[in-house]
Design goal:
This protein has about 800 residues and is mainly β. The protein is built from five helices and 45 strands.
């Protein structure tokens, strides 16, 4: 808390330096309020009785935020972290989120992109640009957003074309630390009297930011497997790239807005993107059992010490390539160098017709991704554990809803939502140096295939009653049905490992089913004693569908039943206040919340087989308070601050996973530990930020100087479910800064943007190191400090 207070003092001092007058004035600038759709209808962010933070395009572009990881910096108690494998990433709100390690799990936070519901973590690698707004809804949102939103929703709305004028934008920039070049363009305007269009593109290419020190090294004798000798007597080629994190991405969005009359509108948006990287896994060894990282031969126990690696989160790693002699017999492995890509398509068609007393809405959505990864999993120069992963998913959704607009005190909304998807996975992995399979000639140890199909539907309704001009009572419920099937098995296993370490390919595939139904009620009472004050109390519930663990490694103990995990449910209360102060120069909001989660979905990791499993924690609690404020101190200076205090812990979790090497004296008994009362992973006690934005004319010119600065604080956390002491992350501060020289007509801007100027190193999650022993922990490193120089040109006529 003292650190947060110190940060506030710094921000206030900075405001004083740029000429901030904090004295109250009866008139002056006002804070512009955004229109949000938290209840699937347009309302002011300050009037809607929901815990929500909303950000316009100006706030999003303040620090050139073009992905969810960076957009999350805007909001309080929100963390977004990319993952190297599994479902691709995790979004955490108020300390609640889904683990990333198993492909079968879905998010606890739904990302709604122009009406499309996306709960796969791969969305965190989607570039977001040319946006109208981002809305962050906190707490369970099942009533309006359905399943997989027990922690909240991030709603992203792209910019619409204008019917009034033609617009254009060109932006180019360069980031010096990772040698990233990027560009963006946009064209928008009327095509006919009733049709407007907008096209936007963004592309980037980056060399990388994590130094890879792996060098060529001879094949060591520790690879010998008695009595067969060295089955893979090949030298290791070292690093394929001097840095990890290098990538190239392209994204293109087309938007068409058709308004044939005053009552009907149809908006079509299609976003396609490609992302190619030299390595999804920007991993570092953050703790070692010895002085340097090791990898082990799981069959003999022989250990190899990596002379090029270290054991600290310091921007250095040792990440070797696969010997080309091994890769030659590994289908799809190419020349043995790490590689990865993901292509995504999001398309939505929103149609709305306004009658005299009703508004009818139809939202059709399509989401597709195709994911590929070939990588070294043991994170050393010795490629002993690795995998090639292929995954694609196609999903189609349809929502119909009607909203009454009677002049009387009672109105309603009702709707139905349908969704279907199919997800196919192909995993070709290696966990032991057992040479070429004598039957097939493959050097990979197995190939596992899985298909998950899902059909779901839900119906919801809400009734609002204006009891008086100041008091509103809103109550509603959503009913959901989920029907899923999965089939998974090994189509090939190496003869040396068949039926021992790996489930035999001779066995029939596992066929599993999951069916469930859920009722999610919600009740909200709001009171507006005056135009500038809203108080609300709400009972909310959330639901996250169950499903199947689709491990990259299918072991002999897997059955059709034990790969199934149950649905997750949440319920609780929150109380909020939203206020406009000082003639709307200040917005001040606060929320107190308390929620209980049953069957919280968590994951456990077996480092020996690089295998994950999903299980349900019995119960968990999330409760706390969050405050955010924004103040227009002068016509040209705005201050902002936010603070969150959160208690996120397991109430009952007696069967929690152990960390590698944990002893009975340390709590691991029979392969499990009691985590009841422990804080959950990624649930900081304190989180907050302080900042300001200012703009000042340069005398005698037609140019202005803009300055923005934000300090972001994140408390210490556990970074894995098992809470290995070596995996805990200390608290840290991050400092973002922007200085912009802009023309007064708004056409030209030249900006310097500094992100994480304190160069804090932090992680997106950790796991006991594959091929390691007690004390060996690896973590997904997040991109550190950035220095960006960019130029922007805008045109409107």
């Amino acid at each position: 808390m003292k650190k947060l207070q110190a940060g506030l003092m710094v921000a206030l001092a900075a405001g004083t330096m740029v000429g901030v007058d904090l004295a109250y004035a009866a008139s002056g600038p006002v804070i512009e309020e955004l229109v949000v759709t938290a209840r699937k209808r347009e309302e002011s962010v300050q009037d809607v009785p929901v815990s929500i933070q909303a950000f316009d395009n100006q706030a999003i572009e303040r620090y050139n935020a073009t992905n969810l990881v960076e957009i999350a910096d805007l909001a309080n108690q929100v963390e977004v972290r990319p993952g190297a494998s599994g479902n691709g990433g995790s979004i955490v709100i108020r300390g609640v989120g889904a683990p990333t390690l198993d492909p079968g799990i879905e998010g606890s936070v739904t990302v709604n992109v122009d009406g499309i519901q996306v709960d796969r973590g791969h969305i965190v690698r989607q570039g977001f640009f040319d946006l109208q707004s981002v809305q962050v809804l906190k707490g369970p949102q099942a009533l309006f957003f359905g399943k997989n939103s027990p922690a909240g929703v991030i709603a992203v709305e792209s910019a619409r074309p204008s019917f009034e004028e033609y617009e254009a934008k060109v932006q180019v920039g360069y980031e010096f630390e990772a040698e990233e070049i990027f560009g963006e363009m946009m064209l928008s305007g009327p095509l006919t009297e009733t049709l407007a269009g907008r096209i936007a593109y963004r592309g980037s290419a980056m060399e990388g930011w994590l130094k890879n020190n792996a060098q060529p090294i001879a094949a060591p004798n520790a690879l010998a497997i008695p009595p067969f000798g060295v089955l893979e007597p090949f030298d290791f080629p070292g690093a394929a790239h001097s840095h990890l994190g290098g990538d190239e991405s392209h994204a293109l969005r087309l938007t068409l807005d058709w308004q044939p009359n005053d009552r009907f509108e149809a908006v079509l948006r299609v976003l396609g993107s490609t992302y190619d990287t030299d390595n999804f896994a920007t991993l570092e060894i953050i703790s070692c059992s010895g002085n340097q990282p090791i990898t082990s031969n799981i069959l003999t126990g022989g250990r190899l010490v990596d002379p090029f690696g270290d054991c600290a989160l310091d921007g250095n790693t040792s990440h070797g390539s696969n010997p080309p002699e091994v890769a030659a017999n590994w289908p799809g492995a190419g020349n043995g160098e790490p590689d990865g890509s993901i292509d995504q398509v999001l398309a939505s068609l929103n149609m709305e017709w306004e009658g005299d007393n009703y508004t009818f809405t139809s939202v059709t959505g399509y989401y597709y991704y195709d994911y590929f990864r070939f990588d070294n999993f043991d994170q050393t120069v010795f490629w002993q554990l690795g995998g090639l992963q292929l995954e694609d998913q196609k999903s189609l959704s349809q929502e119909f809803r009607v909203h009454s607009t009677f002049a009387g005190p009672v109105n309603f909304m009702a709707g139905v939502y349908l969704e279907t998807f199919e997800r196919d996975s192909d995993n070709r992995g290696k966990i032991a140096p057992v040479g070429v399979d004598p039957v097939t000639g493959f050097s990979n140890n197995w190939e596992g295939l899985s298909t998950v199909e899902s059909d779901s539907w839900s119906a919801f309704t809400q009734v609002t009653w204006d009891i008086t001009d100041q008091v509103e009572l809103a109550g509603g419920i959503r009913y959901s049905e989920e029907d899923r099937e999965a089939i998974q098995g090994n189509s090939y296993t190496h003869a040396f490992l068949d039926g021992t370490v790996l489930r035999s390919a001779s066995l029939l595939p596992l066929e599993s089913q999951f069916k469930d139904e859920n009722w999610s009620p919600e009740v909200t009472l709001s009171w507006r004693p005056e135009d500038n004050l809203t108080l609300f109390a709400a009972y909310r519930t959330g639901y996250k569908a169950g499903g199947f663990s689709t491990n990259t490694v299918l072991t002999p103990i897997a059955t059709a039943d034990n790969v199934v995990f149950d649905a997750e449910e949440a319920e609780g209360f929150e109380f909020g206040i939203k206020s406009r102060l000082f003639d709307r120069r200040m917005l001040l909001n606060a929320t107190v919340y308390s929620y209980e989660f049953d069957n919280l979905q968590v994951s456990a990791f077996d480092p020996a087989t690089t295998s994950f499993r999903i299980e349900n924690a019995a119960s968990s609690t999330t409760e706390g308070i969050e405050v955010d404020t924004e103040f227009a101190a002068t016509d040209r200076v705005t201050l902002r601050a936010q603070l969150g205090y959160n208690i996120g812990e397991y109430d009952k979790f007696p069967g929690g996973p152990c960390w590698a090497g944990q002893t009975a004296a340390e709590g691991c008994v029979g392969g499990a530990q009691d985590l009841s009362g422990n804080r959950r992973a990624f649930a900081p006690e304190w989180n907050g930020s302080v900042g300001f934005s200012s703009s000042h004319p340069i005398p005698g010119t037609s140019w202005s100087l803009g300055v923005a600065s934000d300090l972001i604080y994140y408390d210490e956390i556990a970074t894995q479910t098992a809470d290995n002491p070596s995996s805990r992350q200390d608290d840290y501060w991050r400092w973002n800064l922007r200085a912009t020289l802009g023309s007064d007509d708004g056409r030209w801007e030249v900006s310097f943007i500094g992100k994480n100027l304190t160069n804090e190193r932090y992680t997106g999650g950790s796991a006991d190191k594959p091929g390691g022993i007690r004390g060996d922990v690896q973590a997904q490193a997040i991109r550190p400090r950035q220095f960006v120089l960019q130029t922007t040109y805008r045109f409107a006529q």
